[in-house]
Amino acid sequence: MNLFHIHATLQEIDWTASFLENNFIGIGWPATGDLEQEPAEEWKAQLVQRYRIGKTELRDVLDTLHTFVNVMQDGDYVLINDDQWAYVGDLGDYFYDDSNGTGEEYICHRRGVTWLGRIPLADLNDKVLALVSHYSIIAKFEHPITQAQLEPWVSITSATTDGVNPSSVRVDEVTIQEALNVLKKALHSKDEDLRIRAAAAILQYAQS
Question: What 3-state class would DSSP assign to 1?
């Protein structure tokens, strides 16, 4: 299992909300077409023909496309971030979606993501902060994933985590909803202290 960071602002458009709401990540250069249907040597010709980019940028773009299509794998972890939070997701397979068009305002090269949790940027360790701050559109975490110390926010259960057991287990949504229902009922208790504790717990959950 590997960990990646991908920038969510592309062509000056912030895709963070869309990535989170629609459970995917993506990159630009939509006019190249489905990269899984073309040999890698054809990618360069498509980029030169359709985008007319220089040699240095071309090399960087080819590296980004290669990482997104071939290096990233189903089951890897990915981070995106805004000004306050980093969001952790479990990657799915690459797919190409041009149903809305191939203009630069569209993201056609995509990978599905199951979002697992979010982490305050202030709580990231130095290694992960360096990853999130990397200038590349996609950056790979060059350490064992256990050194990212994501366990307090997500449950890493893959056998590829060097045999380290997760320190916490993610609670399923049904259980969370049941717990919230209990707290909501406690808000109407005759016991004032119980009402205060229930209100505090609900507010803490809403802010987490």
Answer: coil
The residue extents of the domains of the chain are 3-148, 173-207
Q: Which CATH number among 3.40.50, 3.30.300, 3.10.590, 3.10.450 corresponds to the domain 3-148?
A: 3.10.590
With b for 16 or more beta-carbon neighbours within 10 A and e for fewer, the 73-89 pattern comes to: eeebbbbbbeeebbbbb
Quick check: pTM over 0.85? no
> Are 52 and 68 contacting, i.e. CB atoms less than 8 angstroms apart?
no
**Reading across the β-sheet that carries 24-27, which strands appear in turn?**
24-27, 109-120, 85-96, 77-81, 3-6, 138-140
Tens of pLDDT, residues 145-174: 999 998 887 754 443 334 433 333 345 566
Please, which residues have CB within 8 angstroms of residue 37's CB and are 6 or more apart in sequence?
96
What does the alpha-carbon distance between residue 63 and residue 5 come to, in Å, rounded to a whole number? Answer: 15
Query: 116, 156 in Cβ contact below 8 A?
Result: no
